[in-house]
Amino acid sequence: MSKTLWPVPGRYVPYLICIAAFVISLLCLQVSATWGWGVALFGGLSLLGTWDLLQPRRTISRNYPVIAHLRYCLEGIGPEIRQYFIESDTDERPFSREQRSVVYQRAKNQLDKRPFGSLLNLYGDGYEWVSHSVQPVAVDPSAYRVEIGGRCQQPYSASVFNISAMSFGALSANAILALNKGARLGGFYQDTGEGGISRYHLEHGGDLVWEIGSGYFGCRTPDGSFSPERFAETAGLDSVRMIEIKLSQGAKPGHGGILPAAKVSPEIAAARGVPEGEDVISPPRHSAFSTPRELMQFIGQLRELSGGKPVGFKLAIGHPWEWFALAKAMQASDERPDFIVVDGGEGGTGAAPLESINRLGMPLDEALLLVHNTLVGTGLRDHIRLGAAGKLTSGFKVARTLALGADWCNAARGFMFALGCIQSLSCHTDRCPSGVATQDRRRSRGLHVGDKALRVRNFHAGTVEALGSLLAAAGLSHLDQLTPDHIYRRLSGTEVRSFAELYPFVEKNALLSGAPAYPAVFREYWPRASPDTFHPVTPKHHPSEEAAMKGTA
């Protein structure tokens, strides 16, 4: 066996060099004081390497003293390196540089035009476009409003594009102030998120949609249940235009949450109606109702307590039979929602585990289509308005979502970009560099409310104007003229389909006489839904039972 001439592993060389440089600097310091920098630098690195060798937690650091920290540094800035130097303008991870740039430009009222043709591959699978007309028309995008709550005493005319749910606590005070002021300036609404209505939501008088989650923040008793008295007091505010019950959200469907005591500041405690400095638990399900019928009764109660304001709910679609149970309850009850907001699984402002973000919840296209088809099939679509949210930052994204059945759209991350978000992907760390998603006052202080409010207004106006230009080119004067026939998708190099051909659409009232044969989801799950429970039931003549009986025979 040969002997090793160099007994020290090569991976220790940087550490040994630091020690040697420290000793040399120390000796040279006797000759010239300028060597003090070497003593400080290499002395610090030598101490760091010694600590690496002695600490038990990081194997990489023990095996590669000093030099391992270069790896950790590069790992820490990896997302920034990819975002700024590697990714192309069209890589959507989660938003492409092109998508972010158009938001920034519209928010700043800068030129948002592009030269030399599209960067997209028009012949690639999945490419989508709007078909235009040889007879384009003139449109007025400012008239793109949606009347919600026609049966209510206080109906609301909403913009076709609004701010989706983001709570104070998730966003900084200055971010909430800027969003609210921008909403007032632009004539659209701000969804409060489930964190309650803070004083920042009320300071500038922008329209609010008050979202109420399972924690009943802002309308709860000390034990966390629903308080009718507190709800009526807040719902009566002039700024509150609609009430939205959150059943689930796209970012983390099926999850509640815990706000640690350290984050429950006096302002957050006041907004949520909870004790300061104590853990706040948001349960995964509501306590005010437990069946679809009870939810309809709760909706009626909130409508009455609010003085006749529109009341609806938001959900991310999961089990089809649960949504069908809600639809059957709407049919069977005198009370029903004035609106429904569908949140796609691609929603993302709420921090959540990787599995929840990547693999939980139905994406927006399928979820919206299912809800729209169900309401059409039950004859309820004319009475219930439908909103949609899920990665919508451009006029085209809004147009294709309207074509799939929505009446209006909401966006969260798009308005965060308008506030100055740079997609640093640090929302969950409280170290947001742009002061948007943080409670660190030193960071959020840099977000200038007046300037960012104008950018929020401008982004909204630019997006609605872009939507209007698409509809005008297609020869459509009104939003309700946009249909699935106007949007096309390339399936391959030789096959193109319109949304009308690509997606199944149910005929009006088709569900009133039983489940249609197509789409299959109705055939399979509509008979198994009941307005009295969220659990699936087994009907007497369910196909699975018939197959089993035939097998027995």
UniProtKB/TrEMBL annotation:
Record region (Disordered): 534-553
SUPFAM superfamilies per UniProt: FMN-linked oxidoreductases (SSF51395)
Record-annotated Glutamate synthase domain positions: 159-476
Domain of life per record: Bacteria
Name of the featured protein: Ferredoxin-dependent glutamate synthase
Biased composition (Basic and acidic residues): 542-553
Segments passing through the bilayer: 12-29
Family the UniProt entry places it in: Belongs to the glutamate synthase family.
Residue stretches in coiled coil: none
Assigned keywords, A-Z: Membrane, Transmembrane, Transmembrane helix
GO MF term set: glutamate synthase activity
Originating organism: Alkalilimnicola ehrlichii (strain ATCC BAA-1101 / DSM 17681 / MLHE-1)
Biological-process GO terms, alphabetical: glutamate biosynthetic process
